[in-house]
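User: Structure please.
Assistant: Input sequence and predicted structure:
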Amino acid sequence: MKKLIIGNFKMNTTPSEFKSYAMTFVTKVKSSKNDIVLCVPYTHLSVAKELFDKSNVDFGAQNISEEEKGALTGEISASMIKDLGATYTIIGHSERRTKFKESDKSINKKIKTALANGLKVLLCVGENLQTRTNKQACQFVKKQLDDDLKGIYENELESVIISYEPIWAVGTGKIATNGDIKKMAETIRKEIAYLYSEKASQKATILYGGSVNINNYKKILQLENVNGALIGGACLDVDNFSVIAREKF
């Protein structure tokens, strides 16, 4: 069964460094049957378009503006991303929520803007350590989904991928237990069923993100209800990330 493997470069590499990476990566994963996406800095999108055209690798941005156009110096709109050939955007990454104080209201607006411009959305949800310690993780994530998906129609869900990304695991080397990941995937599906329908729940694409690497990816991606992985730091190693992207599940 093929999986969705997404690499998030965050603010790493220059465009010229990424070009070298991408040329190697395309060659290494050309036989992969998985769906592969690289989400890169805005400065890398034109390079990605050039090198991933006619390959089996898709690409996307790591964020978009809430607004379509206007006097918003420094912002990048969904239509700009789409025009460069990108097909995905990450929205609601834990670093955007915590470091840049993005609210669920803002995230909801960004999702609607992305979908209106034909982009697929990778929506990140997840709890901090205190919330998990207080045994409120599932309740917290359900509330995030309720707020983030408000006003999104069921037929639009086909373009929304949900990544469970516990904040306490991102970039720390720590990882949720297999039991916790499985339980959260089930929680997300149940909430989708509650908000929409059982059919929507079963069709939903759910990923796990948070310190996924070459040593633990197999156990994570073999879990029931987990359709793929969002990989941060580990995707910067082209050899290791290529192994993950080529894996047969």
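The chain has one domain: 4-246.
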